[in-house]
Amino acid sequence: MFAKASDNYELNHSASSAACRLGPCRLHGEISSQPHSQLWLSYRPVSAGYAVHASARFQELVCPETGDLALAGVSPLWRACEELLAGLEGMLGRRPSRVNATGTAPALLLQLQPSSPDDAISGAAERSLAWPPSPADEGYSIHLNTLHTVISSRSPQGVLYGAFELLRRLRREDPGALAGGGEVVRSAPSAPLRHWDLWDNLDGSVERGYAGPWQHRFDVAAARSSVVYPLGQQRDEQRAHDLARLLASVGINGIGWSNVNACDHGNQHLLSSRNIASMRALVALFYSYGIHSFLTPCFDSPQIVGGLFTSNPQVPEVKAWWAKKIEEVAGAFGDAFRGLVFKGNTEGQPGPGSHGMSQLQGANFFAELLEEVGAICIWRAFSHPEGGVDQALYQFQRFENWDGEARWNVALKIKNGPYDFQVREPVHSLFGHLSNTSLILEFQAAQEYFGHAKHLVALPSQWSSYLGFDLSSRFPPYNVQTLAQVASGGIGRMPFSGIAAVSNIGTSRNWTGHVFSAVNTYGFGRLAWTPTTPAADIMREWVEVTFPRSSSYAVSVLTRMLQRSWEVYENYTSSLGWGFACAANHYDLDDMDRRRHTDHRASATHIGYPRNAGGGYASTYNAKVAARFQSIEQCPEELLLSFHQVPYTHRLRTKNNSTVLEWIYRSHMSGVNAAEGFVTDWLAIEGHVDLGSYPGDAFVDITTRLEIGASDAAAFAKSIREYFETLTGCGLRDGRLQCHAQ
């Protein structure tokens, strides 16, 4: 028996909640009035020896003239100076002197390079943020000269990114950050757009949010969104400021402010003049950190907000209303406003299909209007079919004809796979098919299908596996085209391509509910900046900047736990890429039969979705990839059941020659054992891990969540085992498969 998850973002711990098998599963304490964590930007003192050398290296700070922008606090250059002063003082115990020019003392200089003759003439004060997003302009260099350290970039936000990189190195006590032999650190982002999507609702709730304040039961009226609080409620300005800092520190340059389900939960009023005016300060704050703003309006806004009789874009009055509203938003937000995001005609949301128009026609309609203010239209490709149509094939067919037809300022946002952020999916085939359209790869940092922030799941491992997947180019001489290359603009260098993530941020003091879930926030930004960085390196880096004074033993244990966590979660939930397995609450696994006909296609003798036949989803990939998925001998066994229906007796070549059914049972048992091992590993490093960046008793909170994860993993595995034993008449007894007559 175990406590089921609520459909909201909290742990639902009532008096009747069962105890975990490894100890009492209750959360420690009540909501505290202590301030929220600064996560990896908690500038606590470094070791004394390192501080002495660093203080000698950074005696002065030279910032470029930023004119009136500095007075208003709206320039990333100003933010870079502000961050460096605070960070150096916090870590070194000494605040560098801010001066206008270098002298004889060792100094840290911030330098804005001209990217054109016009820039050299106008100076820093008039330099706007790079748009369209330019990875070359957003890049930075850190020159470690004999006397001075120089952070330079062509853009204001590039200087800010360089400042955060230096602080990151100092926090890790990197000796190279203090070198003075002329070393140069250069870095530039890969993806033009690096987007963070809040799924906040204007009624104060958060869709798929699992990081709200801990309460004994959920109350919608008392809920708080991540940042955009309902009108009339006080916004935590410091928290919003710190979120902007956290996102900018990992290179995020765009934010979507509200839920893509834009016509529910009060979101349909987003474009009211009152709401637009109320967001101005927030938009300006994030823009001062180099973060552009995108709005997600309801398609029916002309009727709901404007009072028109229809929202049909083909009606002149509707087009005029949208044009005027876009001008209003652009006037209020200035250069910070960069576009609108739409999700149409799926999951109950209205869209162009409601008026006899295609999705492409709808996207082009808005792109034409947005072009007038230098903005773009981002169109979300995710949708559900009706009836018995294969969801994977349906999503491909719905958007396969966009190439060459979408306007230049349209970007199609596509989930990493064709299902719905599942534990493991094939890479979405649209990424290999659309070569002349800006494509945005969408991940989900929120743990909708990964244990609702109760379970330890470090997602950079999963994301890295997708980014490195070779989609195979259709255009010789380019034979290889990874998903990372597509998200970076592809062969055609499409200007508004990028990578996005659904936010996992909430109002808990640790931001992400589970302390370890912050690795997904951090890891997304780092991968979006450099998709080829090994996930293991990113996770170790996160451990070192988040728990900076931990022993090397603790760092190794934590890094190993994070590295294993995705595979462990996969083992005790879904096997061999069978897709959806969860109940309607997207947590429990006690409703497998509900997915039987639409997803895993399990019967008494076979399992898997046959997508390998001609005309099936496997054929939508480029030839080389299609051949691999269509062949049962070549198909990666982690995705076997995504493309093939096989008998339970089918032998797995990479799983010790286990049969499919044996592997289902054994992998779930292995996953449970590993989840229990996480608790043991964590308890073993008590006293060795530095939790000073977190308020309250973070050790107890982490322990509690790991125990919940282990307890529920056992319940998940039990549900799966009982389902297949009933379905097949076969079970694992003493390590061997035994069947009884049905």
Automatic annotation (TrEMBL):
Catalytic reaction equation(s): an alpha-D-glucuronoside + H2O = D-glucuronate + an alcohol
Protein EC: 3.2.1.139
Gene Ontology terms: cellular component: extracellular region
S-adenosyl-L-methionine listed as a keyword: no
One MF term in the entry's GO annotations: xylan alpha-1,2-glucuronosidase activity
Family: Belongs to the glycosyl hydrolase 67 family.
Full protein name: alpha-glucuronidase
